[in-house]
Design a protein that fits this description.
Elements: H1 2-9, H2 13-22, H3 36-48, H4 53-57, H5 64-75, H6 80-90, H7 97-102, H8 112-123, H9 128-141, H10 149-156, H11 163-179, H12 181-189, H13 195-207, H14 213-220
């Protein structure tokens, strides 16, 4: 309850109204309205003072902001094994994209070998935001110097009707086009992605500042249509 009180002391009611529009699947009466920098500052303070363990055990939380704080505390973790354990306890309770997308543990950069095994597990989950988180972590940590072609295959093999899973797959492949063009473009040329994801990937890639104009023109020509649909 003390942490709840602290969150309410940081409430911004105008921001609360903005958030309710941004996260339509989150009930407005569960949003306190604390800005992300304040959430992160509080997380750092709780971790520094070792005042967070009981809070992490109290799942599910009542408020959206408590979930944001929970994710921010995990992101501060200094121990990889503890971090993974905390994530596996928390991810099943994540019910919106905003909380999912703010979780980014710093410790992951030092444990790529163990992390990729967990990513394979998360990305195959039938829980929307566990799967989304897995794909996000693959995109964040494995599209640069640690890239392997098999990671593209891993994501291409995810087939879901969940909007937030489809969106993250498109985001992943658009980012892969910016960073690993020669390998990623094959998936569009060979129609390896579901039609909606394929076209959303092209849209996001063509909006990117990291992809050259001639490549954007080429991508436009790869756009697909469903049967009976005009582009």
């Amino acid at each position: 309850m003390e942490i709840q009180k602290e969150l309410f002391s940081l409430q911004d009611k105008e921001y609360m109204k903005f958030l309710s529009k941004l996260t339509p699947n989150v009930s407005e009466d569960t949003i306190i309205g604390v800005r992300i920098p304040e959430i992160r500052k509080l997380a750092k303070k709780l971790v520094k003072n070792n005042e967070y363990e009981d809070f992490l055990k109290k799942l599910p939380h009542k408020y959206y902001d408590e979930n944001l704080l929970h994710g921010a505390i995990i992101s501060e973790s200094k121990n990889f094994e503890n971090c993974i354990e905390s994530l596996d306890s928390f991810l099943p309770f994540v019910d919106n994209w905003a909380v999912c997308d703010t979780i980014s543990p710093k410790i992951f950069k030092k444990h790529k070998k163990e992390l990729i095994e967990k990513i394979k597990e998360w990305s195959q989950s039938d829980k929307t935001y566990t799967c989304r988180f897995g794909v996000e972590m693959l995109m964040t940590h494995f599209l640069d110097e640690d890239f392997k072609k098999e990671y593209l295959e891993m994501v291409a093999n995810i087939h879901s009707e969940e909007y937030y899973v489809k969106m993250v797959i498109a985001w992943f492949f658009a980012t892969a086009l910016a960073k690993q063009w020669d390998y990623a473009v094959i998936y569009l040329e060979n129609n390896r992605l579901d039609v909606w994801v394929h076209n959303k990937t092209i849209q996001k890639a063509r909006e990117s500042l990291r992809i050259l104009e001639d490549k954007k023109g080429y991508l436009k020509g790869l756009k697909r249509k469903k049967e009976g649909e005009l582009i």
